[in-house]
Write a structure and sequence with these properties.
Structural class: alpha/beta
Number of helices: 6
Oligomer: single chain
């Protein structure tokens, strides 16, 4: 995966990004539909496609990030399966996997929106969370998607869970 973050956030070297990439490498379902919310430079969205996801919707509130995602996708030979948009233009359909590598408080605020987009039985992957913030993020997602600490690195955690089946 070749990456030029341009003016967007995310080079792929931060522990939170590495934790997400490791999860994707081991578990992204073939042909899965994926939502990368807060996509930054697009490293997770592009990695998901390169690892076999069927389609990825990359969402960020920074227009510069969306430009970086499109450029990075082209530079990695991604021509199909990727859509990029601002939050207000994001789709409404549910997806198999939701990834959000942002910050804990933002992840808490986004809980209703991210859960709404995740199909029952789908996988939720959250990072950008310090060890001491994990409990608050887990509480925000509650019984709708019980989250466990999947991995930890340098004081950061990756939370993962499956949306409750209705």
């Amino acid at each position: 995966l070749r990456l030029d973050p341009g003016l967007a956030f995310g080079t792929g070297t931060h522990p939170t990004t590495r934790l997400c990439l490791e999860w994707l490498a081991d578990r992204v379902p073939t042909d899965a539909t994926v939502l990368d919310y807060g996509c930054g430079s697009g490293v997770l969205a592009i990695a998901a496609l390169l690892l076999g996801a069927g389609s990825v919707e990359a969402v960020d509130n920074d227009p510069q990030a969306l430009l970086a995602v499109a450029d990075n996708a082209r530079n990695n030979g991604i021509v199909d399966g990727l859509s990029v948009c601002l939050p207000e233009s994001a789709g409404q359909q549910t997806v198999d996997v939701v990834i959000a590598n942002i910050l804990a408080n933002t992840l808490i605020d986004l809980a209703p929106r991210l859960l709404e987009r995740l199909r029952p039985g789908g996988q939720l992957l959250l990072s950008g969370i310090l060890v001491q913030q994990a409990g608050a993020v887990q509480a925000a997602y509650g019984d709708a998607c019980p989250l466990r600490v999947e991995a930890e690195q340098d004081g950061w955690v990756l939370l993962a869970g499956e949306r409750a089946r209705i």
